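To assess whether the prediction recovers the assembly geometry, we first specified each molecular entity separately, as shown.
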Amino acid sequence: MSIKKLGPEELLALDKFSVDEGQPHILVDKAICASCTPQVCLVVCPARCYRLKDGAVNFEYAGCLECGTCRIMCTEKGVTQWNYPRATFGVTFRCS
Amino acid sequence: MADDKYDAIIVGAGPAGSACAYTLAKRGKNVLLLERGNAAGSKNVSGGRLYTYALELLEPDMYKRAPLQRKIVREQVMLLNERGSTTIDYFDPAFGEQVPQSYSVVRAELDEWFAGEAESHGATVASGVLVDGLIEESGKIVGIRSGADEMRADIVIAADGVNSLLGQKAGLFPDAAPNSVGLGVKETIDLPDNLISARFGVKDTEGAARVAIGCTDGISGGAFLYTNKGSISIGIVFNLVEAAKQKRQVQDIFQDFKMHPAIQPLIEGGTSVEYGAHLVPELGYNGIPKRLHREGFLVIGDAAKFGINTGLIIRGMDLAIVSGLAAAQAVLETNSPSQTGELYMKQLERLLLTANQRAYQNFHNIFEISRIFSAYPNLANDAMQFLFTVDGKTPKPMLSGLYGAVKRNVTLGQLASDGWKAFRSL
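The predicted structure of the complete assembly is given in tokenized form:
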């Protein structure tokens, strides 16, 4: 295999996730996001969990790398709850 | 005393937590080491290089048992512009003699081994346990909560990483500010050992560590490459405040770096096997919270924001281990819990962690010189291009050619003010 530029889905597909269905460890208030202009989450989330969908910020916790960037960088306090996933869930790094 | 009361509960089985648990267990303490991942290391990402002295402080020759990757004998600094690169390559085999200075490491292996070392001395290691909160009684921390379970101890030691939710819950410090942490992203790329050794000019047990600037779209930050056994770790650490001010996704900037004409041949033929991200303490001495303890509670490792980054030297795991040792020695020194916190601070001094942090106290200011991340790497490459160009035309005089390279990238005023700022940061 040769080295190539990987897109967001390809990067996350490298990792092992166990998604806690229906139990998001991060809660985002969509009303706050709707009035937010900086929307820095779109740029700084290394997993691209925050993306624009029909003009609005959409958050998906499934591919979260649990780094904490969104909690620290959200300027409008739209990230209303930030926890680690419950035990045994989330990402499992095997060779980092 | 209840049957299930421990001498110490340590939250987080990274290098800080395991170093602490190892030292306490070895001295006969009843220790519980909790890890939220399914195994120690499974939630951790680092560059990563470990400076060996820290393991030696725990126990002489301990590094010989550790699952280390390659001993670093080649230090490389790369200045990139859009098409090319200038690399400084420092080779010193003495870095590999007697006790080698540093090794590349893979955290999933290192952390699991380290927790196992603590376990072999009698520490109870429980993985897959997320600590949700602290138990406080009469103003003291007396234990932790995990779901419906409560566990008690004379002291709770938070080694819960850079986000340290426990340190915040204990009221020791507020959440990290945007300027206090950097965002590291990293890909692990499998590559046969013979290719790694040939491309980096090292023997199969030896390795190279490379840092690179000029590859972050002008954002304060830098890239790294570490050679492991059968893999390469490649990534970038970004200043988050500056990353947030521009419009390109950090992933895209990272992937462009990976495909840079001077980088891609180093990893070509490899297979990407993992992608990770992690925050790193960025401010060095000035980023360490004023309070790292209260009665019944200590904070160690990344949670205490220990870290040193000179651009050339990037340290975190070694400081984590030293702080874990400091906490353990403080616990061993006294039977009076109200004394432990102050003793911990004294141990940080005695083990020279504080002196190490203080030595680079002002160094972080150098990264405020934004031209380091684009104009100066460009200047270096322009100067090299002039020096190495042969095309049969009458060459420019040496001085005017070099001055031309400077002038194209910075003004003399900028050069003087940056030079002064750099001088004051040292």
